[in-house]
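Chapter summary example: a protein plus retinal.
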Amino acid sequence: MKSLLLIIDVARLAADDYTGFTFFVGCMAMMAASAFFFLSMSSFDKKWRTSILVSGLITFIAAVHYWYMRDYWAGFQESPVFFRYVDWVLTVPLMCVEFYLILKVAGAKKSLMWRLIFLSVVMLVTGYIGEAVNRDMAALWGGAISGAAYFVIVYDIWFGQAKKLAVAAGGDVLAAHKMLCWFVLVGWAIYPIGYMAGTPGWYEGIFGGLDLDVVYNIGDAINKIGFGLVVYNLAVQSSKKIEA
Ligand SMILES: *C/C=C(C)/C=C/C=C(C)/C=C/C1=C(C)CCCC1(C)C
């Protein structure tokens, strides 16, 4: 019965179901990325292993959620808002942890990590309220409150304490920090576009042609795997220098 249901679900994905396609590809990409990060971990110096582990955890947690979201979409042809936000509320704070981990060499304090984690949770919880609980006020929750938290995160890493630590660390750490900053500024900005495409508000019509889930799925692939690769590259670069 169970396998029969699976067959039915898969069959229900029509050839032109592009949203379903991005859930499938996203799921496989997250799984492959996790295998890659986990298996490469032991080849690096101890000081980078936790960072690579966290990269793998981010894509692994996403892979598990994509497994469910893929099924949910196949079954209901409806946005899996709940799984989406559970995924984000676990993975985005871990991305904040990555900032802390790479800046630890320059003396980053835990308070920096907790501040970023707190801001990211505010950003996501208010986004969830706008998308799932109080859609009539989606513009207020997502635009004003969630958007404000997002801007503070951007400000913090580009110009605040994190930036100062990155400059103090210099070299490969500074370069990696800069790349992660670009991911947050440009890569994370994909999400508000998906939100505006999929919730009611003054912005309706601007992104009307886009599908919320396709936009989110593209954003996740770029950001989760890209973030991990930046950290991976940092470990590769700095290990090279130790060997040399
Ligand atoms: C792996 C998942 C990631 C990196 C998710 C990031 C999500 C965001 C940056 C979401 C931001 C939002 C706003 C800035 C305003 C509208 C509501 C959100 C939650 C979509």
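Key point: The chain is about 80% helix and 0% strand.
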